[in-house]
Amino acid sequence: MATSSEILTTAKQRGQTDQLPYAGAVTPGEAFALLEAEPAVMLVDVRTNAERDWVGRVAIQNAQHAAVQWSQYPGGVQNPDFLAQLAQIAEKGTPLLFLCRSGVRSQHAAKLATEHGYNNCFNILEGFEGDKDDKGHRKNINGWCKAGLPWMGA
After folding, report:
1. Which of 127, 133, 131, 132 is nearest to 58 (CA)?
2. Mean pLDDT, range 78-101, rounded to an integer
3. What are phi and psi of 99, to 5 degrees?
4. DSSP letters along 92-122, please?
5. Which domains does the chain have, with CATH numbers?
6. Residues 132, 15: Cα–Cα separation, whole Å
7. What angle do CA 141, 147, 151 make, to 5 degrees?
8. In whole angstroms, how large is the CA radius of gyration of the chain?
9. Is 5 exposed, middle or buried (0-12, 13-18, 19+ CB in 10 A)?
């Protein structure tokens, strides 16, 4: 298994290679390894409260897990208090791993946070549920759940 330093180096290299507007990107497995090794790392779940309640959520230490909705349910309207809520749970130097369903909203969250002074923002590739399979179901192709990482179902 790679060290935290090696994981962060790889994540930052992805950021440079892909010209990401935030520090970088980690796989679900890399994210979990960082969380296990580094108590200061925080996972920020940007899915809606409904998604976390009805689909499930990561099962990690509470001190390393926070929920700040990127968009609100119902309606999908962007959360106007996103940055204020983020400021309540993390300082600007905190390494932040943003998670959503499939890795899209978390990219937007990482970008916005970076634009506002959070300089250690990483997107968790594939998200919690991952991509849809040929039958339209998630959790079968990739993502946190498919990787066998700890999560609690609804």
Report:
1. 127
2. 97
3. -130, 135
4. TTS-EEEE-SSSSHHHHHHHHHHHTT---EE
5. 4-149 (3.40.250.10)
6. 25
7. 110
8. 14
9. exposed
Is the N-terminal amide bond of 28 cis, ω within 30° of 0? no
Residue 82 contacts residue 111 (beta carbons within 8 Å) = no
Report pLDDT digits (tens) over 11-24. 999 999 999 999 99
Q: Which phi and psi (to 5°) does residue 122 adopt?
A: -130, 140
Measure the CA–CA gap between 147 and 140, rounded to whole angstroms.
9
- Contact status, residue 145 vs residue 128, Cβ threshold 8 Å: yes
Which two structure tokens, joined as six digits, stand for 117?
């002074």
Dihedral in degrees, nearest 10, Cα atoms 73, 49, 126, 70: 60
Cα–Cα distance, 112 to 45 (Å, whole number):
15
pLDDT bin (cut points 50, 70, 90) of residue 50 is very high
